[in-house]
Amino acid sequence: MDAVTQAPGLFSAHLLIDVSYLLTAFLFIMGLKRMSSPVTARSGIVWAGAGMLVATLVSFLYPGMSNYELIIAAIVLGSLVAWWSGKKVAMTDMPQMIALYNGMGGGAAAAIAAVELYRAAYGNVAGAAVAHSPVVMTLAVIGGIIGAISFSGSLIAWAKLQGVLNKTLRFGGQKFVNGLLFLGSLGVGAIVVLHHGADPLHVTAIFVLALLFGIAMTLPIGGADMPVVISLYNALTGLAVAFEGFVLGNAAMIIAGTVVGSAGTLLTQLMAKAMNRSLANVLFSDFGSGGGGTATAVTGSMKAIEASDVGVMMAFASKVIVVPGYGMAVAQAQHKVWEMCQLLIEKGVQVRFAIHPVAGRMPGHMNVLLAEAGVPYDLIADLDEINAEFETADVALIIGANDVVNPVARTDKSSPIYGMPILNADKAKNVIVIKRGQGAGFSGIENALFFLDNTRMLYGDGQKAAAELVNAIKAAG
User: Fold this and answer.
1) 93 catalytic residue (yes or no)
2) Predicted TM-score (pTM) of this structure
3) Could you report the per-residue pLDDT of 22-55, keeping only the tens digit for each?
4) CB atoms closer than 10 angstroms to residue 156
């Protein structure tokens, strides 16, 4: 008889752990399913959070568990920091927080791998090898490399989004250098696996090279591609956690990591598809750097309009479609925009919001901002749902969006954004663009929409312009 069957208490603990992890898996999956809809997303987060709570509490029942004081102190400290930062962060800064927290997840997975690999390395040096199989050692190395890449890469993404790092770094032979860093990390990892830990210096080299690769891979990527980068690192973090779950024999980590990794992978593919680009193109091209494109030059001139005229135009319209972008987030104009829309709705105007999949700095950024302003979910539509309605709209109001409404994506094969699905704002009877100035989008090309005969430019800060529109609509009677 084994030790478990000999000890009823131990058997009961294992049974409770297994049942709890089954419940955790159910809560994670149901939570993720509910997060797929804005209507149920809030409850989905609660479901997933309950799953994490169950997994955390049951971990205290593991046989041989010790250092309860340190574990509880870490949980309390981490919870307080997360609660404070979550309450304090502005909605416009949510992408930065997501990138930072995602990096922490990758770093945690890398730390678990480091502990196990250093144990094996020091045991190898001392002649008392730790009992890890080659499979477990391999998973620890792979998970550690992936987690380290996600950690350092996410920190660079945070720095770019926060404005701490405003430049992209590119130099000749950069891809070759990046390849050497990645292959070097894998090569040293193979030595560690084959020699069951080798020595601590080899283990250190794995993580140093992986961290450098994460930095080097993210530095050249520009702001326009950050939504895809964030979702990619989210997938990598989940994958790293799943691998380390196998290393520790922890079913909750395997389940959570697999769910997050698969969801992140799917989201990354959807985001890349929404830009009509491959993931390799996102990671290794100049698109997002704002370094300029090769599109055909746009002819004509932009035509300005006053807020008073736009207010009258919208007040007497039948349908108005609002297209928000990152500029709305920067201006923190979402509340004023919704106040303006409420006035239009009171006047009998049909109002809809059109969201492009890559609008903003993270997946769902615009949805979060509009929800925070109180916009009902049934007024918000994605690209596929709303595009056919632009032809029947009297006014398409663009606030802070640029490349996602550029019609050259349909026609100009020389353009960097050719083939990217866009919102058909140009097909509305009138197009109003709220914009600070006449600069190009993140792709570095001029927006042909701004030069069309049915387009007028309302220059100024997004929040101030929206406030002027509110006053103009009120004055329209």
Assistant:
1) no
2) 0.80
3) 898 899 889 988 887 777 888 999 999 999 899 8
4) 23
